Amino acid sequence: MPTTTKIRPRALIRASGGPRYAVALTVDALGTGLLRPFLLLYGVTVLRLSAPATGIAMTVGVVVGLVCMPAVGRWLDRGARSTVVAASMLVRVLGVALLLATPAGHVWLFATAALFLGIGNQAWPAAHAALVATVSHGRERDAALAGGRALRNAGLGVGALLATACLAGGTTALQALAAVTGLAYLAAAALAWSVHLHAHPTTAPAATPAEETGKDTDTGTGTGTGTDMGDGPAPRMRALLAANVIYVFCLNVPEIALPLVLVTQLHASPVWSAAIFVANTVLVVALQVPVTVLMSRFSRRTMLAFAGVVLAASYLGFLAATSLGHGWGAPAVAAVSVICTIGEIVYAGSATALVTVLAPAHVLGRTLARFELSTGFGLAVSPAAITALAPHGPTALWGSLAAATLLSASAVATEKEPGTQLSGHCHQARAGSVSS
């Protein structure tokens, strides 16, 4: 069976929603990169809030923002696509406007602004995945989702670098960054809305003879697509959703766990933390699509389980690296972080793709919303879990993460979803437009 072996950028852009949508993603990511890393700093320096109050307000905004996900899922299941993406960007415009209008010392207005920003940040991934799932199929879809992630990470990285360069301007510069972020979100929303993509998920096409002979959706190298699965029941995915909460800890390892370990345990220069974060971003941008393309030779579920094994191995590597102490410890942690990033790339390239092929068309939105709910919950609790485990020593932190991730990988590998049959090895011609 042919597999994806070559990337064609134009076909990849088409499979991702088209040129205008790609520009919208880039502008949105740039805007997010300008503000998101410095939102805490904005609350402390511009609004003169205490650091604990600012952090709590931001956390509440993220957690409460998760409550919107069921509504987002139902909206997507009514066929909306580009409209939901645009709405997720527009609600962040409102958040930025509130941020700029908040007087110094008003923590509740800041919390409300963080809530709107959180709603937009939580709604966007599910809306984007549903849009891509509507315009592409099978392994072409996997590559398109990977391309969107690489593009977004590039935009976030560039935006963060621009914002860092502007920080010398003090509070005025932070306010200007917030204003530019709002304008970027507004422009991105207009571009996304202009795509005018609407789906009719309840009218799935009949299966072809080739589709009738397919295997389970998450196995093999078939190009089955959840949007062609008719009116079957929504997949439960209990083990997958629970495992995903643990998997997403890897996304906060470069930003939270490693800086904490390097500075407080190894007493290394903060430059190491910055270098690891930059290397993580560069590797994701450069390798997300090629690695996802290579993974088309294997089952999505198998690759997701493999990602857990790689992540667990990297956590054990961090445990070994921290035992080296000051001197060799920091370079060893930096080297192991590359393995952790590879695990992150494999996870990101298989997780959402697996969910899209498990979901029948009429519940694609709700299924993606449930998955993003687990992602958001994992991202919300991981900083607290990491900072709670770290004071108890490297074994408590890295040993616990490794054990939990291996358990999650085992659950993913062994979970069976009754009633989800492959829509087949269809759309190979479409997949061939991305690869040959």
TrEMBL record:
<keyword id="KW-0812">Transmembrane</keyword>
<feature type="transmembrane region" description="Helical">
    <location>
        <begin position="371"/>
        <end position="390"/>
    </location>
</feature>
<feature type="transmembrane region" description="Helical">
    <location>
        <begin position="49"/>
        <end position="72"/>
    </location>
</feature>
<keyword id="KW-0472">Membrane</keyword>
<dbReference type="GO" id="GO:0005886">
    <property type="term" value="C:plasma membrane"/>
</dbReference>
<feature type="transmembrane region" description="Helical">
    <location>
        <begin position="84"/>
        <end position="101"/>
    </location>
</feature>
<dbReference type="InterPro" id="IPR011701">
    <property type="entry name" value="MFS"/>
</dbReference>
<protein>
    <submittedName>
        <fullName>MFS transporter</fullName>
    </submittedName>
</protein>
<dbReference type="Pfam" id="PF07690">
    <property type="entry name" value="MFS_1"/>
</dbReference>
<feature type="transmembrane region" description="Helical">
    <location>
        <begin position="176"/>
        <end position="195"/>
    </location>
</feature>
<dbReference type="InterPro" id="IPR050171">
    <property type="entry name" value="MFS_Transporters"/>
</dbReference>
<feature type="region of interest" description="Disordered">
    <location>
        <begin position="203"/>
        <end position="230"/>
    </location>
</feature>
<keyword id="KW-1133">Transmembrane helix</keyword>
<feature type="transmembrane region" description="Helical">
    <location>
        <begin position="333"/>
        <end position="359"/>
    </location>
</feature>
<feature type="transmembrane region" description="Helical">
    <location>
        <begin position="239"/>
        <end position="262"/>
    </location>
</feature>
<keyword id="KW-1003">Cell membrane</keyword>
<feature type="transmembrane region" description="Helical">
    <location>
        <begin position="302"/>
        <end position="321"/>
    </location>
</feature>
<feature type="transmembrane region" description="Helical">
    <location>
        <begin position="21"/>
        <end position="43"/>
    </location>
</feature>
<feature type="transmembrane region" description="Helical">
    <location>
        <begin position="274"/>
        <end position="295"/>
    </location>
</feature>
<dbReference type="InterPro" id="IPR036259">
    <property type="entry name" value="MFS_trans_sf"/>
</dbReference>
<dbReference type="GO" id="GO:0022857">
    <property type="term" value="F:transmembrane transporter activity"/>
</dbReference>
<keyword id="KW-0813">Transport</keyword>
